[in-house]
Amino acid sequence: MDIFERIKENPGPLGQFADYGEGYFIFPRLEGPIGPRMKFQGKEVVFWSANDYLGMCNNPEVLEADAKAAAEYGMFYPMGARAMSGETDEHLALEKELADFVKKESAYVLNFGYQGMVSAIDALVSRHDVIVYDADSHACIVDGVRLHMGKSFTFRHNDMESLEKNLERATKVAEANGGGILVITEGVFGMRGMQGKIKEICELKKKFNFRLLVDDAHGFGTLGKTGAGVGEEQNCQEQIDIYFSTFAKSMAGFGAFLAGDAEIIRYLKFNLRSQIFAKSLTMPMVIGARKRLEILKSQPEIKAKLWENVHKLQNGLKERGFNIGLTNTCVTPVMIEGTPVEATLLVKDLRENFGIFTSVVVYPVIPKGMILLRLIPTAAHTDEEINETLAAFEALHDKLVSGYYKDAAEKLLKEENLSFKPI
């Protein structure tokens, strides 16, 4: 079969809904400065879908640093990859500051987070090694594992008994192949908000020989006394062998970094294909990242405000009868029973009639029969916006109890004769 013909016949699990949902449920177009309130479809909405945890997007100091760096260097400097012509004193200074902050010997700045994680996994393991990773891992981890030419095993999400069984299997394979074991998990699972059981995983090092790589994209800046992440929060940072985080969450930018023992970071610097063969992170983002990190370290009241808002929102949702799962982070999932059609009606009601914008997730990302609304509180949200949102969810709860969305979904399916379940 011709490749394009196959694509046309099977556009993928999300692509099949493009005609129905693009621009609204998928690839929604929001307008205005990123913040607690934005414009959607010409209407103002309270916005709960930006990972701008610390409100850095509109921080005056950040905006000034970004603007000055762009004016001085432009958006292209330096040209070329780090290994060829893209190394600067600013890059090295940022790496030193990041390493000191997360209490590691060394750090290496990456131009993008997703590609950086994929490439880090590829560089760390050979075909003789075995990867063991959490079943709920982010797509960047999954794609990195796909590049691996050796054996890999998944363990049930945050299940230490499952991890131990898979480490036993991995040990046998590694010993037979003359390889080692790399365990990969997340500091914070970004969909449901649970912390990874990092300390418990580290305890298994007493029984098994493995190295640990932690993706802490949602934990950096939000967890721990200083904001240094999940390792600081769980008092086990020194046992995390490779610490990874992105600048796309608390740092309100793009890029990422790896941190660990100096010799291992040096190895990665010389072997990460996504960095060696790609353009260096631009100077405005590097200088801007230094300013963001300075603010994170010197203004702890911002993180305190973030957690004040998290508790208000999460407690308010629970008081109104909503299931927010086992989240113990800022990520706030609202889990509701229902079909994808009900999800579309529910989300449209929230956006059009209550002015509340949240992300919506359905199968196959979560189990069938479930709807997940994900809210991301930030330090920039006000009490007014939180109360406005809780009032909307209280009305939503009444409609759910009455079966309003279920009845409306059945009517829609019958009237439109839909042969699929729109997202």
From TrEMBL:
InterPro entries: Aminotrans_II_pyridoxalP_BS, Aminotransferase_I/II_large, AON_synthase_class-II, PyrdxlP-dep_Trfase, PyrdxlP-dep_Trfase_major, PyrdxlP-dep_Trfase_small
Cofactor requirements of the protein: pyridoxal 5'-phosphate
Pathway: Lipid metabolism
Coiled-coil features, chain-numbered ranges: none
Residues annotated as domain Aminotransferase class I/classII large: 44-392
A single GO molecular function term of this UniProt record: pyridoxal phosphate binding
Transmembrane segments: none
Pfam families reported in the protein's UniProt record: Aminotran_1_2
Sorted UniProt keywords: Pyridoxal phosphate, Transferase
UniProt keyword annotation of RNA-binding present: no
Family, as annotated: Belongs to the class-II pyridoxal-phosphate-dependent aminotransferase family.
Protein name listed in UniProt: Glycine C-acetyltransferase
Species annotation: Cruoricaptor ignavus
Lineage: Bacteria, Pseudomonadati, Bacteroidota, Flavobacteriia, Flavobacteriales
